[in-house]
From TrEMBL:
Coiled coil: none annotated. It comes from Corythaixoides concolor (Grey go-away-bird). This is Gluconokinase. InterPro entries: P-loop_NTPase (IPR027417), Therm_gnt_kin (IPR006001). Its EC number is 2.7.1.12.
């Protein structure tokens, strides 16, 4: 697509990386400053009229709201109070698949601070997106070219 790509893992604080490396799952308090920093990255790209892709485990609805609206999302439980003019237009791609497939992929990853043992905690935390969130769900059981094509089609059709 020629868009800028950001890996959210690059924005974790040293404390978050250390915690995960020790096998301790992050909590909301650990994640909120990270998510706000990611919102700022996306806001900067949007202000420059640049499209971007962010790879991020936005596991909870609230996390996705912070990515869309920044810190103001934490102050209100009512999306309509967030202000449509400040919200970023984001299409969330929920990569969905069985834990065993994801575990096998994680085990092949080298030099990453998050050990595969934390995968279960991510599944336990996961709140899959649902309406009215703007999202698509793509199966990880498809081939990589099929996954990419499905995402591209959703971007250009929506």
């Amino acid at each position: 697509l020629g868009w800028k790509f950001y890996d959210a893992d690059d924005y974790h604080s040293p404390e978050n990386k250390k915690k995960m490396a020790e096998g301790i799952p992050l909590n909301d308090e650990d994640r909120f400053p990270w998510l706000c920093a990611l919102h700022d990255v996306l806001r900067r790209e949007d202000s420059s009229r640049q499209d971007a892709i962010l790879a991020c485990s936005a596991l909870k609805k609230m996390y996705r709201r912070v990515l869309v609206s920044g810190a103001s999302a934490m102050e209100s439980d009512q999306p309509e109070q967030l202000g449509e003019n400040t919200a970023l237009k984001i299409l969330f791609v929920h990569l969905d698949g069985p834990i065993d497939i994801i575990a096998r992929r994680l085990e092949k990853r080298r030099g990453h601070f998050m050990p595969p043992e934390l995968l279960r905690s991510q599944f336990d935390t996961l709140e899959p997106p649902h309406a009215p969130e703007k999202f698509i769900t793509v199966s990880l059981e498809k081939s990589l070219p099929e996954i990419v094509l499905e995402i591209e089609c959703a971007i250009f059709q929506g």
